[in-house]
Amino acid sequence: MLPISKKRVGQCLRCGECCKLPNVCPFLRYNEDNTPRCTIYRIRPIACRKYPRTAREHITKDNCGFSFDESHLKK
Ligand code: SF4
Predict the structure, then answer these.
(1) Residue 12 in contact with ligand 1 by CB distance below 6 A
(2) How far apart, in whole angstroms, are the C-alpha atoms of residue 9 and residue 3?
């Protein structure tokens, strides 16, 4: 199984944006306050558990609480 990059920092903010990739997940629901909720959270697929695994696959940067430390590239 592919590992999560050691450069990943931050935490999930439960925005639900990655639950819409590439289409809206059929297990995605919304609470009364409109916050997203995964109805299979305890048994969710490994891809969901690991997202975002690398900077390259991180396509929800605008909302996501995770980021990747790329300071080594700025030198
Ligand atoms: S896009 Fe990021 S913050 Fe939003 S639910 Fe997915 S992992 Fe969590």
Answers:
(1) yes
(2) 14
The alpha-helical segments, DSSP class H, found in the chain are: 46-50
Over residues 7-59, the pLDDT tens digits come to 999 999 999 999 999 999 999 999 999 999 999 999 999 999 999 999 999 99
For ligand 1, the distance from its centroid to the CA atom of residue 65, given in whole angstroms, is 6
Alpha-carbon torsion 23, 12, 38, 43, what sign?
positive
Q: Where are the domains of the chain?
A: 15-63
The span from the CA of 53 to the CA of 25, in Å, is 19
Predicted TM-score (pTM) of the model is 0.87
- Measured from the CA of 15, which atom of ligand 1 is nearest? 4
Query: What one-character DSSP code corresponds to residue 34?
Result: S
